[in-house]
Write a structure and sequence with these properties.
Elements (H helix, E strand, L loop, with lengths): L7 E3 L2 E3 L3 E5 L6 E5 L24 H14 L6 H13 L4 H10 L6 H11 L2 H5 L2 E4 L5 E7 L2 E5 L6 H13 L2 E5 L7 H12 L9 E4 L6 H7 L7 E5 L2 H8 L7 E5 L3 E6 L7 H16 L9 E7 L4 H20 L13 H10 L6 E5 L6 E5 L15 E7 L3 H4 L6 E7 L3 H5 L3 H4 L3 E4 L17 H5 L1 E7 L16
Parallel strand pairs: 7-8, 7-10, 8-9, 10-11, 12-13, 12-17, 13-16, 15-16, 17-18
Antiparallel strand pairs: 1-2, 1-9, 3-4, 5-6, 6-19, 14-15
Helix pairs in contact: 2-3, 2-7, 10-11
Organism: Paraburkholderia hiiakae
InterPro entries: Ald_DH/histidinol_DH, CoA_reduct_LuxC
Protein name: Long-chain-fatty-acyl-CoA reductase
């Protein structure tokens, strides 16, 4: 059987020579790809003046291109996308229906309205189009403009949307991007890039995108590429080990924009239990935040703090709520969540061990890879809370929301809250402890591009913000005109 080929694409050139065999994550697929070592000198843009052709484009030109690309990202008609989707069934951490659902949604990211809204709210289109002027109180005229950069993107592979978002950010900033394809999604960025080559092979936006696969941690390769004369920015998504590895290359002239690993949680307020209807609504919303993408995202809830009290009545309340959450998990549509592709054996051992300790924990489900709800019978999460995955959640009873604050830190990304009115009480407190995103329960995976990410604004950080300061001695006395000190 012929092994599939993941080409290398360097600024419009599709390369299929000098192939080596590599394995996708999970071990279900071996594919071929060009040996990146053979193309190390071609990958960098080199002279940054080569970015100039992007400045012949207006923002409207860029949006027109993106919209045209979106029309071609139709899974039913795009051969490259369909092939990538089918191969990703083997490499992705999620099941085929979830992978396909993600691919079906790609084209929706490239509507004119969505792009304009996101760029205007994060950067400001005027800063991309030219110099924005202002006069300071001392008479100084200041002009500011956002320029693109030469960037390397080490993208996450838990969702195909990450690759398209990276390409889109690169476009609107007028940057040159090298995308390192991840082993659990080596095909999505390539499929999009090949579509761009077929659509407009000589367009500057096509000519400033490269996609390649190489094994992460290849120091001989990375030490040559990750240099300030090749790159100005590295945008890295990934786990602790990969972040620590890439940080060794950072030096003056090379900036790391880190979208590093995070954990997310949920808070269920006491008002939830005022009626059966609100309990059922909260259970369905919470199941969504747990189960979407099969809990493979940083945004997914893993530990849930339930303000029900820790007395006998409170424990009865949280145990019943845990069953409602488990039942709701099983009802989620297969376009959103499914039983695990491959339930983690180590996690399974932890969950099974807790079944023997029913004084301190109640385990609901989790015997067939369908997910589990672990209900603590004391106000503490399980010791393995950082390992929770594959639709496995820990509900923790608390008497007061003050107890939740101790569990929030700089690793806390998203906090889903119910009822909605409780957010007004918490939205000014949670960020002080480290929470980075507060969201209505059930909408954790409904990420919005106009919003910040991980408490930064990545699009702004990816640009180079340049100032032109205009002074005249007649308006603003120069430093040389200061009177002497007597």
């Amino acid at each position: 059987m012929n092994k599939p080929i993941a080409p290398m694409i360097i600024r419009g050139e599709i390369i299929t020579e000098n192939l080596i065999e590599v394995g996708g994550r999970g071990g279900d697929l071996v594919f071929q790809t060009p040996d990146a070592h053979r193309y190390i000198d071609k990958l960098p843009l080199g002279n940054p003046a080569k970015l100039a052709d992007l400045y012949d484009l207006s923002f409207d030109d860029i949006v027109d291109y993106a919209v045209a690309l979106g029309a071609r990202l139709d899974l039913a008609t795009n051969t490259h996308l369909r092939e990538a989707c089918e191969l990703s069934y083997l490499t992705a951490p999620t099941t085929p229906t979830l992978v396909k659902s993600s691919y079906l949604g790609l084209r929706n990211m490239l509507t004119r309205e969505a792009i304009v809204e996101a760029v205007e709210s994060t950067v400001g289109i005027q800063y991309l189009e030219g110099w924005v002027k202002q006069r300071l109180i001392d008479g100084t005229e200041l002009e500011i403009r956002c320029f693109g950069s030469r960037a390397l993107h080490i993208v996450a592979g838990n969702s195909p949307a990450v690759s398209l978002l990276t390409i889109l950010r690169n476009m609107v900033l007028r940057s040159d991007a090298i995308i390192k394809a991840p082993s659990n999604d080596p095909f999505t960025a390539l499929a999009i890039a090949r579509t761009m080559v077929e659509m407009a092979p000589d367009h500057p936006l096509t000519r400033h995108l490269s996609v390649a696969y190489w094994k992460g941690g290849d120091e001989a390769f990375e030490a040559r590429l990750y240099q300030p004369h090749n790159l100005e920015k590295i945008v890295a998504w990934g786990g602790f080990a990969s972040m620590k590895h890439v940080s060794r290359y950072i030096q003056p002239g090379l900036e790391l924009i880190s979208l590093d690993p995070k954990r997310s949680a949920s808070i269920i307020g006491a008002g939830t239990f005022a009626s059966d209807a609100s309990v059922q609504e909260a259970a369905t919303r919470l199941a969504t935040d747990i189960g979407a993408l099969n809990q493979k995202g940083c945004v997914n809830a893993r530990v849930v703090y339930v303000q029900c009290g820790t007395d006998a009545q409170g424990l009865a309340t949280i145990n019943a709520f845990g069953q409602a959450v488990y039942d709701a998990l099983q009802r989620l549509p297969n376009s959103l969540s499914t039983p695990a592709k491959r339930y983690d054996a180590g996690l399974q051992a932890h969950v099974d061990a807790l079944r023997l300790d029913d004084e301190w924990y109640r385990v609901i489900g989790g015997k067939g890879g369908e997910g589990a709800v672990i209900v603590s019978q004391l106000a503490e999460p399980v010791s393995f809370s950082t390992l929770l995955d594959d639709r496995t959640v820990n509900l923790v009873p608390v008497d007061s929301l003050d107890e939740v604050m101790d569990a929030v830190d700089a690793y806390t990304q998203t906090v889903g809250i119910y009822p909605e009115a409780l957010k007004d009480e918490l939205k000014n407190r949670l960020p002080l402890y480290g929470a980075q995103r507060i969201v209505s329960l059930g909408y954790a995976v409904a990420l919005k591009w106009p919003a910040p990410q991980d408490a930064i604004e990545p699009l702004r950080r990816m640009g180079k913000w340049i100032s032109n300061q205009i002074n005249s001695p007649e308006v603003t006395p120069g430093p040389w005109q200061r009177p002497p000190i007597v």
